[in-house]
């Protein structure tokens, strides 16, 4: 059991550190099928695990100048509202519905990671690892122009976080790049801050209504945090396209397993 927790936690952290998303997508199935935790308990515990891990990773990114605090505050504010509503639904929703929706989210994430799309030249430079900030006037204009979209996406991602325990980084990162005009590296760091806020709200929302195995959660969290630092350090050694496609294939198989095991 301890070895399984170490393996699952390390995998969760590495994925979160490499891609700025995907922590819950690994944590929930690991808790469910490797550690045999009850579904609602797994969702709640994954939120706590990812909240702590994302917060520490976000702090590390902020320290290196890779978090846009203003964008994180705007997106996160609406996300927290959505997450609170999502947890209220999640507490009472049928388990089959939650797991089915979770599998659909995994397939959506896989599709996004597997599809190939020609990027605009400016975005290509950002995806290649440009570290310089976008022109402040342009970023400010983008933020104001897309405020309604950011608010709606924040509420939607938050609701999904509370309902099925998914942090939503795979949706947040591209949204930040396209709607706020910030570079990819800063979008990942900012996404981690938003995921931390959403996941914390979700975990608090489940507390008192769902039992939590604090010992298992603590041990899982420790190795997840260590894995996230390893993932962050490894990120520059691999092609982001290769990483995304490999993770996408993995998600398809796990989502299919969840559907076969829990829904069909």
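^ Assign residues to that structure.
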């Amino acid at each position: 059991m301890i070895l399984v927790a170490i393996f699952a936690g390390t995998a969760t952290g590495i994925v979160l550190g490499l891609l700025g998303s995907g922590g819950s997508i690994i944590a929930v199935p690991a808790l469910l099928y490797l550690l045999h935790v009850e579904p609602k308990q797994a969702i709640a515990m994954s939120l706590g695990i990812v909240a702590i891990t994302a917060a520490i990773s976000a702090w590390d990114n902020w320290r290196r100048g890779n978090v846009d605090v203003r964008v994180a505050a705007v997106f996160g504010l609406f996300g927290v509202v959505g997450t609170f509503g999502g947890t209220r639904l999640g507490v009472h929703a049928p388990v089959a519905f939650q797991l089915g929706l979770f599998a659909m989210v995994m397939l959506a994430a896989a599709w996004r990671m597997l599809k190939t799309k020609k990027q605009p030249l400016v975005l290509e430079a950002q995806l290649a690892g440009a570290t310089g900030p976008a022109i402040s006037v342009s970023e400010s204009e983008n933020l104001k122009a897309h405020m309604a979209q950011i608010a709606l996406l924040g509420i939607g991602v938050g609701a999904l976080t509370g309902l099925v325990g998914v942090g939503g980084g795979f949706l947040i990162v591209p949204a930040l790049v396209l709607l706020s005009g910030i570079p990819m590296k800063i979008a990942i760091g900012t996404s981690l801050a938003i995921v931390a806020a959403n996941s914390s709200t979700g975990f608090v929302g489940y507390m008192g209504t769902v039992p939590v195995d604090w010992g298992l959660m603590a041990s899982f969290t420790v190795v997840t945090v260590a894995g996230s630092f390893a993932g962050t350090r490894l990120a520059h050694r691999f092609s982001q396209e290769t990483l995304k496609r490999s993770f996408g294939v993995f998600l398809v198989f796990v989502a299919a397993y969840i559907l076969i095991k829990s829904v069909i």
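The two ends are 28 Å apart (CA to CA).
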